[in-house]
Specification:
This protein is α+β, with helices and mostly antiparallel strands and 178 residues long. The protein is built from four helices and six strands, in the order ααααββββββ. The strands form two sheets. It has a three-stranded antiparallel beta sheet. Strands 2-6-3 form a three-stranded mixed beta sheet, with no helix packed on it. β4 and β5 form a beta hairpin. The N and C termini lie far apart (101 Å).
């Protein structure tokens, strides 16, 4: 190694003395520099391990939260549906106690209205295509019948269809003029 190189090593160390001429001085400088580099590497390695552990812990927390969210996602809906179940139970008790057909119908209609109200809050809508043109995206033709209506007109809804946020969950099952 030349004296200029020795001077550069010492200058990098922040020393402003004459170039080292002795091999022992050069070895001492290089050892000191190596110790600093090793210490810096160990500090960076420790920081990396801490960061890696933090990342793993964060990932585990996020995964656990996702599992919990999925597990309890329907809790709010179920909480809203329990009163509907209560009303069905009440209706059954009233029927067993002897009510008129009209009272029974009113009770069942009230429970149906309550249940559909809850579903509407969740984004559920009805597909009611009576009198509309048959749409294979929203309707399922169960039967074709002669009618005074134009061909491909829905003349009877056999089973109501439902949407969830404008996406068909179940098509309306219909009878079509043909």
């Amino acid at each position: 190694m030349t004296n200029d190189e020795n001077f550069e090593i010492e200058a990098a160390e922040g020393k402003s003395q004459e170039p080292a001429t002795d091999a022992e001085d050069l070895v001492a400088i290089l050892k000191e520099r190596l110790e600093m580099i090793v210490a810096e590497r160990e500090a960076l390695k420790a920081d990396f391990l801490v960061t890696q552990a933090d990342f793993a812990n964060t990932r585990r927390r996020i995964e656990q939260k996702a599992k919990d969210d999925q597990k309890f996602a329907s809790q709010r809906l179920i909480t809203e549906l329990i009163p509907v179940l209560d009303n069905f139970e009440r209706t059954i008790r009233y029927i067993e106690g002897g009510v008129t057909a009209e009272q029974m119908l009113e009770g069942i209609q009230a429970v149906e209205k309550q249940l559909f109200g809850i579903l509407q809050k969740q984004g559920v809508g009805r597909i009611s295509p009576l009198g509309q043109e048959f749409d294979p995206e929203r309707h399922e033709a169960i039967a074709i019948a002669k009618s005074d209506q134009p061909d491909d007109t829905v003349i009877e809804v056999l089973e109501t269809g439902y949407t969830l946020s404008d996406r068909v969950v179940r098509p309306a099952r219909v009878k079509v003029a043909g």
